[in-house]
Amino acid sequence: MNQHIVRGALIGVWVLAGAAVAWVPRDARFAAAAGTPEARAPARDTVVDSLLVSDSIYQGWKWWHVYCYRCHGEDAMNPILPAAPDLRLSLSPSGKAFPRDSFVHTALTGRLEKGMPAWNVMLDTTAIQELYLYVKARSDGWLKPGRPHRLSDLQNKSQ
Ligand code: HEC
Q1: pLDDT given at position 154
Q2: Which atom of ligand 1 is nearest to the CA of 96?
Q3: Do 105 and 35 reside in the same domain of the chain?
Q4: Do 60 and 20 belong together in one domain?
Q5: Does residue 84 have its Cβ closer than 6 Å to ligand 1?
Q6: Would you say the CB of residue 135 lies under 6 angstroms from ligand 1?
Q7: Is residue 47 part of a domain?
Q8: 17 and 91 in one domain?
Q9: Looking at 18-27, 62-71, 81-90, 126-135, which range is the least confident one?
Q10: Which of 31, 35, 87, 127 could disulfide-pair with 123, CB 3.0 to 4.6 Å?
Q11: In angstroms, what is the span from residue 133 Cα to ligand 1's centroid?
C-alpha cells in the first residue's frame, strides 16, 4: 500500500476519534469522572496545608508562645528584644547553621550575662527538642506564621 494513503487513513481515524469525544455530552463525561477515586478525594488532599504539623512541632509552638516569643518574637520572627537573635537564622544553613545539640544546650543553660535565661529550671530536654523542631520548621520555611494544627484537630472539626 502507498505510504501516503496509510498516513492519511490514520489521521482520519484520529480526527473521527476526537470528534466522538467532543460530541459526548459534558454531563456524561463529568459523571464518568466522578466515579474515579481521584474525583471523590477531599479537596484538602490536593492542596498543600502549610500549617499542618506533627504533635511534637505543635507542642513546640505552644512552648514558644509561652516562654520564648517575648524576646525572640511571635512566630519565631521579628525579635522583640534587640539583643535576641532571629532563631530562624541561627538554625539556617545560610546563617549560623546551629546543630540541634547546640540549640538544646544553649536553651537549657542560657547565656545569662547576655540576657538569655537558662530554661532548665522551667523546661526539660523533651520540651526543648520540641522547641527545636518548631523553630527548624519555621527556619526551613515550610511552616507559615500563625497557629498550626494537627491532623487530629482537622478530624475533630469535620465530625
Ligand atoms: C528575656 C529574653 C529572652 C527569652 C525569653 C529567650 N531568649 Fe533566647 N536569647 C536571648 C538573647 C538576648 C540571646 C542572645 C545571647 C547572645 O548574644 O549570646 C538569646 C539567644 C538564644 C539562642 C542562641 C542563638 C544564637 O544564634 O546564638 C538560642 C538557641 C535561644 N536563645 C533559644 C531560646 C529559647 C528556646 C527560648 C524559649 C524557651 C528563649 N531563647 C527565650 C534572650 C531571650
Answers
A1: 85
A2: 26
A3: no
A4: no
A5: yes
A6: no
A7: no
A8: no
A9: 18-27
A10: 127
A11: 16
Long-range CB pairs of 142-148 (<8 Å, 24+ gap) are 142/50, 143/50, 143/51, 143/53, 143/57, 144/50, 144/51, 145/74, 145/75, 145/77, 146/51, 146/75, 147/51, 147/61, 148/51, 148/52, 148/53, 148/57, 148/58, 148/61
Q: What is the domain extent for residue 110?
A: 52-155
Q: What is the pLDDT of residues 8-45, one digit of tens each?
A: 555 555 544 444 444 444 444 444 444 444 444 455 55
Q: Is 92 in the pocket of ligand 1 (CB under 6 A)?
A: no
From ligand 1's centre to the CA of 115, what distance in Å?
8
Q: Which of 69, 71, 81, 120 to mutate to test the pocket of ligand 1 (most atoms within 8 A of CB)?
A: 71
